[in-house]
Amino acid sequence: MNQPHSLPPLIQVVGYAGSGKTTLLTRVVQMLTNQGWNVGTIKHHPKSWEWDEPGKDTWRHRQAGAGPVALVTGDRTVIDWHKVQEPVALLPFYRGMDLVLVEGFKQASHPKLVMVHREEDRELLDLSSIITLVSSQPEQWKKRGPCLHWDDVEKVAAMIVQEAGLDSK
């Protein structure tokens, strides 16, 4: 397991909208946490999103120039860090995790699983650091390199554990 002071390995799951990234990621997270791994996630949402209201305290903190801004409630914490361009910048928040799975950030250069299903997905094959493709039709993509079926969550999880350099549980 990862030591509390070290930064965890980071693996990406990328693809176009509607490709099954979230479904695959949540199934893998559930499997790995059931095996005893401490798994964190980062979700890239390229469109703007406001989580606090103009005029409220956290909004005022951000307007004053603070960053990151955290809101801590009785049951959750939200951290707003203006314009993170690279998921590795967030890893200090994940100390003590065994693994961080990132949904998105296609252009980042971390090891990644790429969701491919349609002909339009072919351009994703030019991304850097691809460890495997994941598809609903793996036979169609195998000539491009390793390709796993998106329903074979055990194999996908095993590949992630291996790529992250984690010891078996």
Key attributes of the depicted protein:
169 residues, alpha/beta, Rossmann fold, two-stranded antiparallel ribbon, 22% helix, P-loop_NTPase, MGD_biosynthesis_adapter
Plain-language structure description:
Pfam families: MobB. This is Molybdopterin-guanine dinucleotide biosynthesis protein B. Residues 11-135 form the Molybdopterin-guanine dinucleotide biosynthesis protein B (MobB) domain. By secondary structure, this protein is of the alpha/beta class. It has one domain (10-46, 83-164): Rossmann fold. Helix content is 22%, strand content 21%. The strands form two sheets. It has a six-stranded parallel beta sheet with strand order 2-5-1-6-7-8. Strands 3-4 form a two-stranded antiparallel sheet. Strand 7 (130-135), helix 3 (138-141) and strand 8 (147-149) form a beta-alpha-beta unit. Helix 1 (21-34) crosses helix 4 (153-164).
Topology:
Elements: E1 10-14, H1 21-34, E2 39-43, H2 57-63, E3 69-72, E4 77-80, E5 99-103, E6 112-115, E7 130-135, H3 138-141, E8 147-149, H4 153-164
Parallel strand pairs: 1-5, 1-6, 2-5, 6-7, 7-8
Antiparallel strand pairs: 3-4
